[in-house]
Each structure stands twice: as C-alpha cells, then as structure tokens.
Design brief:
The complex is a heterodimer of chains A (95) and B (492).
Chain A (H helix, E strand, L loop, with lengths): L4 H10 L9 H15 L34 H5 L5 E2 L2 E2 L7
Antiparallel strand pairs in A: 1-2
Chain B lengths: L10 H10 L4 H19 L2 E4 L1 H16 L10 E5 L26 H8 L3 E6 L33 H8 L5 E5 L6 H7 L2 E4 L20 E5 L2 H11 L29 E5 L9 H16 L3 E5 L7 H16 L18 H12 L2 H14 L4 H22 L5 E5 L15 H5 L6 H5 L4 E9 L2 E8 L5 H14 L15
Parallel strand pairs in B: 2-3, 7-8, 7-9
Antiparallel strand pairs in B: 1-3, 4-6, 5-6, 5-10, 9-11, 10-11
Helix pairs in contact in B: 2-3, 5-6, 7-15, 9-11, 9-12
The chains are: A mainly alpha (95), B alpha/beta (492).
Amino acid sequence: MSVTSRDLEKMALLARLEITETDLPDVTERFSRVLSLVNELNTIDTDGVIPMSNPHDMEQRLREDSIAHPSDREALMASAPAQQDGYFLVPKVID
Amino acid sequence: MAEDSVLGMSVSALQMMLRKRSVSSVELTEAFIGRIAAANESLNAVVTVCAEQALEQAQEADAALGRGEYRSLTGMPILHKDIFCTRGVRTTCGSKMLEDFVPAYDATVVTKMKAEGAIMLGKCNMDEFAMGSSNETSYFGTVKNPWNLDCVPGGSSGGSAAAIAAGMAPLVTGTDTGGSIRQPASLCGLTGLKPTYGRVSRLGIIAFASSLDQAGPMAHTAEDCAIALTAMSGIDPGDSTSADIPVSDFHGALDTQIDGLRIGLPREYFNDSLDNAVRERVMAALAELEKAGAVLVDIDLPHSHYAIATYYVIAPAEASANLARYDGVRFGYRCEAPQDLEDLYRRSRSEGFGEEVQRRILVGTYALSAGFYDAYFNKAQQVRRIITEDFHHAFEQVDIIAGPSAPGVAFPFGTKQTDPVAMYMEDIYTLAVNLAGLPGLSAPAGFIDGMPIGIQLIGKPFDEQTILNTAHRLQTDTDFHMARPTLQGLAS
C-alpha cells in the first residue's frame, strides 16, 4: 500500500493539522517511508492471535466511587490561553 | 572541600557524605548549580533552573540531617526530565506547544522523590514529546554530547543524559517509550534503567504512548539506579496501570554474587548486522560476567525483526490519541486571531507541534482510521503478543537477556535527521523491551574511538533486582562507569 498527497490531506483533516502546499510532497514522501517500514507487518501470520494492549494483560483496576478534590480549579484554569468568568473562550461557533 | 570534587561523584558516595555531614546539601546544591551555570550555554542540557527553590529545600535538608533525620535522598540534588509535571515550575516537554505551561500539580515521581528528600535543581531538555533519538527535535534546541560537542547525546532523554555526564547532577529522571533512557545512557556513558511497565506511576508524566511509557533513573552506577528505583516506584491510585506489587529495597538487596546466573544472548541481536566494534565491547563485558560465574547461553527471539514495524504503528497510534488534547483551548499554545473553531484547532496544532510530532500524529491517525484499523493497529497488537511470547519462552531457559543498547556510538548532528527511518533504527535493540513491558538497563561497556557505548541487560517482569545485581557486579570488576568527559572546549 502506498499513499498519495490526497491521503495525507485527509489524515491532516482528521488530525486537525495543516500541511501547506509547499510541504505536501516532502511530508508525503517521508510518511511513505515510515509506511513501507510498517508494511513489514503484512509478512507475518497472526491468525488466531489475541491482540495485546497491556504487556502484562492486566485487568482494569476499579476504585471506590468517592468524591475527591485532587486539583484546584483556579490553578488548572490559569493554564487556559483565553478565559472569562471561569469559562474557556473559543471563537463564535453559532451565529 | 574543593567544590568541583563532588561533581562527578555517585549518589551512594554523596549520600554517605551528607549523612556524615562532611558536605552539606547547600554546598552540593551550590556546586551543581555552579556547574550548570558554567556548562549549560555549551550543552543546552537544562531548560529551567530552580536555584532559589533548590537552595531553600537544601537548607531544610541540612537542618533535618543535623537532627539525624534523613530518608534515602535527603539533601540530594537531582534534575527531572521536562516531561514530568512540576507544580508551579514550567513544564515544556520540549515543545512550543507547552512553552509557557505551568502545571497545577506534581507528577507522582516528583512527589515521591521530594518525599524522599531530593532537591530539584531544574528541568532537562528533551526531544519534543519524547519523540526522537538524538534530542534534535526539541523546540529549545539541540543538546550536545559532553564527550564530543559535535555529536548528539541520544534521545529522547538527551538533556538528562548530558546533564549527568557533565556533572550537573548526580541523578536524573528520564522516560523510556522505545529506548529513551537506555540509548542516551549508552551514548553518554551512564547507567540508565527502564523499569517494568507498571512499576512506576505515569500520573503527571506528559503522555506519549500510554501502553509503553515508563519512567526511570539515570545515574553513574547501577547502585545509584537501585537507590532511585525504590524512591520512584509503587502503586498509585492515580494510575490504574501502576502495578500492585510490593516495592523492595533494591539497594539493600544488591548482591554481587552472580555464580550460575544464566545470561541469554539472542542470535537475532548478535547477527551480521551488528557493528563489529559494538560486538567486541559487549562481548568483552559479557566475558567479565562469565569470569564472575555467569553462564552465557545462545537463545532465539525469532520475531525480533518485527519490533520496529510493530512499535511504529502502536506508538504513533497511541500518540495521536494522547496528543488530541492539545486544542488551543484548555492549555498550551493558541494561534493568533483564529477565524473559527476549526481554524483555531488546525493552526494551534500545526504551529505548536514540530515536524516529527506531526508525522507521528499523521501515521497514528492513518493506522487508526476506518479501513486501516485491522490492517495496522490490530495487526500490530497481535504481533506485539508474538514478540512478548518470544521473551517469555526465552526466560524459561535464562535468568536475564543481554545485548547491545544501541547500534553504535553517538553520531554527529544532522546525519540522521532527514530520514525518519534511519533515526528509528537507533532503537532497534530497545523497542521490543517496551512492547513486552520488561525491565531493561544500559550500563557502560567501554569506548569506541573515545566515545562511550553500553551493554543492555533485560530482565523478567518485575525482576529489576537481577539486572541491577548483574550491572553492579560488572561495575565492581570494571571501571568504564568511572570515566568522565574532560569538558574541554566548553564556554564558561
């Protein structure tokens, strides 16, 4: 499988990234190199193998459902690039 | 005492001096801050220095030591990789995206080491979001290797490695997703330990690939790594993947007796593609261990070849999901004058992330996208199991596995940067250990043309003790770990 510049534009849209026209050929070429590296996976038989998402096959641990206040809201909000009255500011979404 | 004499010392030596009060924590802190001030302009290993805060903590530590009260790291100056969140101290992850990010909380590793009495001197430079093997992707500039300023220090924990090698701290933290502790440790002549996945809490470590990321120590000796590992480890209610396994006193349990230890040498690591000079150094270190009573056994890890392909699907896939949080809204970089919400997202992300980070997000997005999920992501997770089972089979015959840490010594800047695949090959011997969640350690094994090279020791899950013991024995019988760069040619 090889990729085209159009595939890359689609991935960029999904990932909310912008690739300029000037950069597109280079980005596509380097992406393709990575893809041919990972295409190696097609040469191994994995029939019936259970996918592994945790290296120790650990089960998710559950905790007591109790109220806690681990972080200070104001300190967390202080990292927002734009805010007002405790809300995050974004450009107008609905006219 | 002469100020400079403490700079290359081990944690265990300094620990003893602090307790005997032959040096104070304030003296140590001042000495290391002095070295950072003198050498950092040339090396660029440290991105933030917390001198005032460190000296205050050092005074408190001295008062405690004066009362005879101490814990494992009381009064010990350390540096953290800039991937660990530090409350009130800027945490950049090597990215423009987080250039001004000041976390509201400490990572669990930071909390634990502080509770053990460590003094934080500052934060170390790193590859952007820990994606790189040369520290060339950092937004804050490349880090120089103290052994040769024209060469890379390795990555992604390159700033951490350069800092120790240059005597800026006796102990640093790093993280290792595919080799980011072991490869720079090899390239800078240090001992670096990636613990078993789950051994150390990931809370407050800026996420790259959550099923692979693990924090660990880098220091001059295995003994120092043992002290630090106990301080860092343990179950954390804030990280549901942290393991509910008791933390032992790795330092107290260190044992140089390795008689009968079975060390597996994977044929796939010692094949024709292994550089001859690297092979010689690794085999010479193994011969020392053999002299000490260890038994070398040839083993097979038949699917080693697939580790790189598997890793470069799983890591970017997890990264693309983790890095979706950078949206220009809640924290991090935000573009100027966004036209609308889409424009805000797209420009904040493409202006805030560097080239390698964007490439991995794109690869990950591709591997997870409709129509490709089964062919890439699911397939890679299946191969991950096959690779992991190879290790488990090998551990039925041997106690630990040994091999090279990196394919060669530190390379000159710019030589691998334009070809992502050439750079990815730097981690060819380390990636599989992360896929299988095993502990791995790199220890100095000598020099090639004056540049350090390491040997990698891989242990069974949660058996860091045996690889620490083995490295400690090697360091009892050899003195590669005692060598320090001359730091000639540094601006001061």
